[in-house]
Design brief:
By secondary structure, the protein is mainly α. It has two domains: 1-40; 50-132, no CATH class. The chain is 66% helix and 0% strand. It is built from seven helices and no strands. It has helices at 8-38, 50-58, 64-71, 75-87, 100-113, 117-124, 128-132. The radius of gyration is 27 Å and the shape is rod-shaped. This is DUF8040 domain-containing protein. Residues 45-132 form the DUF8040 domain. Pfam families: DUF8040. It comes from Mycena metata.
């Protein structure tokens, strides 16, 4: 049980200590909140971009199970699906960053792994807004 504060001076000292601690926690919270907004280092800096990783998976001389593990389908099925999507008239725009095959790979990878957008954006080396569009 806390000891009751008897003198006025002790009471003032206690209030000042509590207010100082409260201000310190508020300043710390604000600093932690705004710090990520001022970090100017690049986030997606992996040696393999999403395009390079997909090219590695689609390499006919690579292990056939790699694309199956990542995308949930075999190499020839993935290529046939790309062909079917293009046959239906869905083509890449001329100024997009992500081609149709990479867009499909992002979708399939997300479905198969169940990872959050942050993890998928790190794997494919694109921003969260690019991945989620």
């Amino acid at each position: 049980m806390p000891v009751p504060i008897r003198s006025q001076q002790d009471r003032v000292r206690w209030v000042v200590t509590v207010l100082a601690a409260l201000v310190q926690y508020i300043v710390l919270g604000v600093a932690l909140y705004i710090t990520p907004q001022y970090i100017k280092t690049d986030m997606h800096t992996s040696a393999l971009s999403g395009r390079a990783w997909l090219d590695e998976l689609l390499d006919p001389e690579g292990h056939p199970d790699r694309i199956y593990i990542a995308m949930g389908m075999r190499h020839h099925v993935f290529l046939a699906l790309i062909f079917q999507i293009r046959a239906l008239g869905y083509m890449e725009a001329q100024n997009v960053q992500i081609m149709l095959d990479q867009s499909l790979a992002i979708f399939l990878y997300t479905c198969v792994t169940g990872l959050a957008i942050d993890h998928v954006s790190e794997r494919f080396q694109h921003s969260r807004s690019t991945i989620s569009e």
